[in-house]
Design a protein that fits this description.
Layout (H helix, E strand, L loop, with lengths): L4 E2 L2 H27 L8 H22 L9 H5 L2 E5 L7 H14 L4 H4 L10 H6 L1 E5 L4 H10 L1
Antiparallel strand pairs: 1-3, 2-3
C-alpha cells in the first residue's frame, strides 16, 4: 500500500496552475477567439454570453466534483501524483467535495487560506480544514503496476 504523506504548498500550487491552464484552454480560448473576430453585432454577443455561462458552470462542476471521483482530485493533481483524502485517508464524499469547493471562496480572501497550507499540520489549506480533507502525495506502486502488466 502507498504511504500517504501530506502534499506541500508548491506542488499544490503547480497542480492549481495546470488546472488553470486546462480550464482556460477549454473555456476561455473559444471566447477570446470569438471576441477578437471583430464582429460585435448579431449572434456573437449571445454566443460569448453562452460560452461564459458554460465556463462558469464547467469550472464549478470541475472543481466541485472531481475530488469525489475515482481521480480523488483534479487533472492537475492527478498528473502530479496528488489526491484529496478524508481524515482517515480514504476517498472523500461528494458533500465534502462541495464544502471544499465552497471553501475556496473563503481561502481566496487575500489568499490567506491557501497560504495556510505551507504552515499547518498535514499541509492543510483553510478549505481542507472546512471539509475535513487534506491532499497527499502518492508514490507509484511499482509492484502493482508490474503485476498488472504481467496479467495483461
Amino acid at each position: 500500500m502507498n504511504e500517504q504523506r501530506p502534499a506541500g504548498f508548491w506542488i499544490r500550487f503547480a497542480a492549481a496552475t495546470i488546472d488553470g491552464l486546462i480550464t482556460n484552454v477549454i473555456f476561455f480560448v473559444p471566447i477570446i477567439f470569438l471576441m477578437v473576430s471583430g464582429e460585435t453585432e448579431g449572434v456573437l454577443p449571445a454566443i460569448v454570453g453562452f460560452l461564459t455561462l458554460l465556463l462558469l458552470i464547467g469550472t464549478i462542476l470541475y472543481f466541485g466534483m472531481m475530488p469525489a471521483t475515482s481521480f480523488q482530485g483534479t487533472i492537475g493533481k492527478k498528473l502530479l501524483g496528488l489526491k484529496v483524502v478524508n481524515d482517515s485517508g480514504g476517498k472523500i464524499s461528494m458533500g465534502q467535495s462541495w464544502i471544499r469547493y465552497l471553501g475556496y471562496i473563503v481561502s481566496s480572501i487575500f489568499y490567506v487560506g491557501y497560504i495556510m497550507a505551507a504552515f499547518t499540520d498535514r499541509k492543510r489549506a483553510l478549505h481542507d480544514m472546512m471539509a475535513d480533507t487534506y491532499v497527499v502525495k502518492t508514490e507509484p506502486d511499482l509492484a502493482a503496476a508490474s503485476e498488472k502488466r504481467l496479467q495483461a
